[in-house]
Every structure is written in C-alpha cells, then in structure tokens.
Amino acid sequence: MLKVLVIDDSPFIFKAVKKALENSVFDVVDNAGNGKIGLEMYEKYAPDLITLDVTMPIMDGVETAKALVAKNPNVKIIMLSAMGDEALLSQAKEIGVSGFLRKPFKPEELLNKAKEILGV
Ligand SMILES: [Mg+2]
C-alpha cells in the first residue's frame, strides 16, 4: 500500500480524500491540521504522497511545500485549493509541487492524479 498524508485544516477534505483513494492501492494514514503538524507527521509516516491545502492556520501550504521539498527534493505533493490563480499555480510548480487540483475535486480526478504522479 502507498501511504498518503493529508495536510488540511478541514476534516471534510480528509474524509473526501480518504473516500477517493482508499479502495485502491492507497492507505490514507492521517490528517494534519496545519503545516507544522504536517512536517512532524511527514517524519513519522514517511508517506509516498501528500495532499496539501493552501489556506491553513500556523503554517500555510506554500511554506509547507517549501519545507517538504527542502527535506526531500523527490517528495510527491498534490496541492488542493479553492484558489487556483495563475500566480499560485506557477509558485507551486516552482517550489516542486507535483500536481494541483481545484476544490471541490471529483474523487476520480484525485485518484487519477495520484496514480499518475506515483506511476501506478
Ligand atoms: Mg484550509
């Protein structure tokens, strides 16, 4: 099973990610409510994939993505955000985020994106 960590302050999104990915090769292991906890959980679980919110308290998704890439340049991140402006998209790409989906996303969109990024 491929481990997925959800970094998002919305429990609703955690449930949606779980539902989209769990009957496949993915095991959605935990939910971090902000980037700071997300970095701690990254160390704990060593996930194969991270879904990352942008707007969160304490440490937002952009700062979290930078910190994750600094830890592991090959980290696989799908950014999930209601905001999808060009500036954010290009910033995410520049940082090294593997994929981007606009909220609300369709379950199969996330599943396909996750499979594509991990090559499964
Ligand atoms: Mg949020």
State the gist of this model.
The protein has 120 residues and is α/β, with parallel strands linked by helices.
Description of the structure:
- The protein is an alpha/beta fold.
- The protein has one domain (2-118): Response regulator (Rossmann fold, 3-Layer(aba) Sandwich).
- Helix content is 46%, strand content 22%.
- It contains 5 helices and 5 strands; from the N terminus they run E-H-E-H-E-H-E-H-E-H.
- The chain has a 5-stranded parallel sheet, with helices on both faces.
- The longest helix is centred in the last third of the chain and has 12 residues, at 107-118.
- The termini are close together.
- The mean pLDDT is 96.
- Bound molecules: magnesium ion (MG).
- Magnesium ion binds next to loops.
